[in-house]
Amino acid sequence: MNSNPATPMNPHAPSSSSAGAGSPDSNAPRRNSKRPKYSRFTQQELPACKPILTPKWVISAFMLVTIVFIPIGVASLLASRDVVEIIDRYDNACLQGTKSQKVQSIQDPTRNKTCVRRLTVTKRMKQPIYVYYQLDNYYQNHRRYVKSRSDQQLRNRGDENETSTCKPEHEANGMSIVPCGLVAWSLFNDTYSLSTGNNRTLTINKRDISWKSDRDEKFGSDVFPKNFQNGSLIGGGSLNESIPLNKQEDLIVWMRTAALPTFRKLYGKIEQDIEAGETISVVLENRYNTYSFSGKKKLVLSTSSWLGGKNNFIGIAYLAVGGLCFLLATTFTVIYFVKPRHLGDPSYLSWNRNPGGH
Question: For the residues 42-48, what does the mean pLDDT come to?
Fold first, then answer.
């Protein structure tokens, strides 16, 4: 007798074959899909402007740019032409000899550094007349030079010992330097005194020559120079230890480092008119050493216009773009009339045939 009788088959029980692949059984686990949920935004089906660049539209756009840019360029050039600018390079004129002789002379503290220059005014200069000094081949944007300063020390009196970022000009004689760093150490120290031929003194106003944000936020009213230029090697100008840093505007102007090797910095403003034909006598102290690195020093007197100083580049750039657009518009117009091209029917474009995207 068989001890394991066969179990009778249940006709209602599901067979193993019915649970195979492709089974429509709703209880079977569904595979996770990475397909994102449909959205008109993600599928870029939102209503949008899809212009058709016909010749008329292209020519009109170029002509519009021409009409706008050419008057702006002409106005910019006229404004720049009205600016009167006098530039005088004095480093070679005030010191003669070879490079080594010039370096030795400029570093000699006993040598007289006074130099007299005469400038002729060719066109009437209306006040205010801005006095700049210009340095060439001077890389204030050098990484080590730019980083050699302590903004925290410049703002707060209690942080005068925060000089870790100022090396190598961080201390002298065992004490911290305020302001520390190479930027402050190399402060420009040439001075200028101006007068006209009729013995009229041209007073240079040094107030408000720096950015107001720098005076109010970057330089503290309770921070005073301390132990400055007391090291073995003197870099540039000295500072009055009784005047807080936010009042020493020559320093503030110098500490805003330039991005290019040729730059101008504001020395002061003359608030008097100078007539055409007058001769300006400049008595300057040629102290700043640019001879070691073949740099140049220039004195710049300039008026201003509604556009700023003398700058022909903006006007030329606007005229160039406007002229180019006019040339392209003219060329396309000639081609359009001489050899026109038949355009297709825009109704056959996909977004016109199927606006909903389905």
Answer: 80
Residue 352: give the domain boundaries: 52-83+310-358
What's the rounded Cα separation, in Å, for the pair 318 and 312?
10
Q: Is residue 10 part of a domain?
A: no
Q: Torsions phi, psi of 324, nearest 5?
A: -65, -45
Give me the mean pLDDT over the 261-284 stretch.
95
Question: Model pTM?
Answer: 0.78
Residues 146 and 228 in one domain: yes
28 within some domain: no
Tens digits of residue pLDDT in 95-128 = 988 999 999 999 888 899 999 999 999 999 999 9
Indicate if 220 and 327 belong to the same structural domain: no
Q: Rounded CA gap, 150 and 177, in Å?
A: 11
204 - beta bridge partners? Answer: 270
Q: Is 44 left (phi over 0), alpha (psi -120 to 50) or beta?
A: left
pLDDT digits (tens, 9 = 90+) for 163-216: 989 988 888 888 999 999 999 999 999 999 999 988 899 999 999 999 999 999
Same domain, 324 and 282: no
Instruction: Clarify whether residues 269 and 351 are in a common domain.
Output: no
